Fold:
Amino acid sequence: NAGSLDADAAALADFRLAADPSGAALSSWNLSANPSPCGGAWRGVTCAGGRVTRLVLEGLGLSGGSGGAAALPALARLDGLRVLSLKGNALSGEIPDLSQLAGLKLLFLARNALSGPIPPSLGALYRLYRLDLSFNNLSGAVPPELGHLDRLLTLRLDSNRLTGGIDAVALPRLQELNVSNNVLSGRIPPAVAAFPAAAFGGNAGLCGAPLPPCGGDEAAQQQQPNASAARDCPPAAAMVAASSPAGADAPSSSGKGKMSRAAVVAIVAGDFAVVGLVAGLLFCYFWPRLSGRRRGGRRLQQGEKIVYSSSPYGAAGVVAAAGAGGGVAGGATFERGKMVFLEDLSCSNGGTRRFELEELLRASAEMLGKGGSGTAYKAVLDDGTVVAVKRLRDGTAAGGGGGASSKKEFEHHMAVLGRLRHPNVVPLTAYYYARDEKLLVYEYMPNGSLFSLLHGNRGPGRTPLEWAARLRIASGAARGLAYIHHCGRRGSGMPKLAHGNIKSTNILIDRYGAARLADCGLAQLASSPSAAAAAASRSAGYRAPEAPPPPRPWASHKGDVYAFGVVLLELLTGRCPGSELPNGGVVVELPRWVQSVVREEWTSEVFDLELMKDKGIEEEMVAMLQLALSCAAAAPEQRPKIGYVVKMIDEVRACGEEASPSHDESVDESSGVSDSPAVSEGGALSQ
Ligand SMILES: Nc1ncnc2c1ncn2[C@@H]1O[C@H](COP(=O)(O)OP(=O)(O)OP(=O)(O)O)[C@@H](O)[C@H]1O
Structure:
């Protein structure tokens, strides 16, 4: 019954006998108490589809004494394994032929007492992404067969007794390489010369960049300047990882991915110049508009009344005088406008940095883009705090004009939006309301938008957006939307809410790489036909078929799900959903185009070519395609609810968890392999 769960259980039992004869570490592997390894009670064992797929037993002192050498061969029978980590035990003996484990993606045998050669049969594990054999007693040559592992991202052979050359380690996708502290010799292959010297150190016989040149090698001497330049540049794959959204803020342990000093200086200088210039322009624009409406020549800050609200409904909250002039002059009733801060009731972010309008006006600013509801700026305050400021276009404020009722409506709407706090929603932290000027202050999202990640810089030199990252973004955005849709549920004290403008430019990436929905509830603010038309035309391609013709602002849960379906199609196809024609038509209606291709049974034709290099994801892509098409169904009643969409995306992600190591955020240097599923968004559904 090879290839069955019974066979897996027998193999595990043999392993336990050999590696843990006292039975102390693996006492839960008890067939009478827990008959199935897949029942969830067996330490370190995870199953999928009725087979053992993960075995993670780290730092348990497994050794087996003299019989320990029989331990690993028992595991060579677990042919459903995807992940095997036995790091930090005392396992001895040789690494057996593991070629039966053809589905293995991650193999961690570091910090044991393994000896003998690295078996050439490891070269048959062509799905491996990470291989770590460091800190053992392995000897002999690095087998050339390792050179077949062209999906490897991590290769660690350091701190063994390996001899001979390292040509086999010149693998195309490596992001992490360490062969230090062995007895290796010969020239370092140029393909890995960009890794730091520490990756090769402790091998007296190795030479060539990044180590000193090989003796008598004239060519190497001449190439020395290039070689040192290479040391400052990460290898291509490492650059991809470093610039991927998820990795943007991750600390680098190896120093890979650093730019040259000159480049950094040039970029910083360039940034200052651009920021300064834009700041000047913005200052010139805002200042006259705001301060120019002085009465009797009074400066803005003297008449300015800043209201700090201790509650989101706090127009009537604590009123504090502020501004350089300090205080509401003589109790004047004259009110130019007010900056209202919206408290984070969940207290999840440690409080918002408060500031006055003057400080905002003083801030250096950079235009981020012009949208349907206004123009967005990045503003850097005096103390370096960065915020995003959206200046609403004229006519984009509930009720329009500036009368008391429209002001009340606006304030109420802001109070509602200010209460939206979720790890997948961009928080609105403050707003400024004056008769002719409305500013919204949001947390700044430093990693761009899904639009820029998907469509930016297509062509040579582009950093591809990998499938795992696309799924993570889809999952985060769906969670954010589910939160918004569920906010208005009974007893929440919130009105029923729809986002109203789901599209890839409104899915931003925060500093942790998580997706966050921006611009929630702004579509409903458009009060003049021109503002509504502008907003609607910028959302062409995402607007559900049942939406009323453009000038009318419109938002609904079903409409959000339709737009989200279009975003999913955008993620799958890499195509923009609709480009507008001057006559108001849309060139490509993504859902209809995809449907027509799928009907012709050319399904694979629709997928983004960029995804073709992510192997083994076809099933996941087809599952997502079906989900996307059901969201973008023409008939609203056929569209699923967003809660179901979240669940389906999570299922696809769970299936793919082993299809790519980047799904597996728990598997890395620092955390080792965790049995718990990675939760990157940290955002459980608030349902
Ligand atoms: N909080 C934010 N942090 C960082 N960038 C932002 C933020 N909000 C908006 N942006 C950026 O500013 C650009 C302009 O945003 P804006 O919302 O004004 O336009 P839009 O999303 O293109 O269209 P629309 O107004 O119809 O939503 C966006 O492309 C987005 O990348």
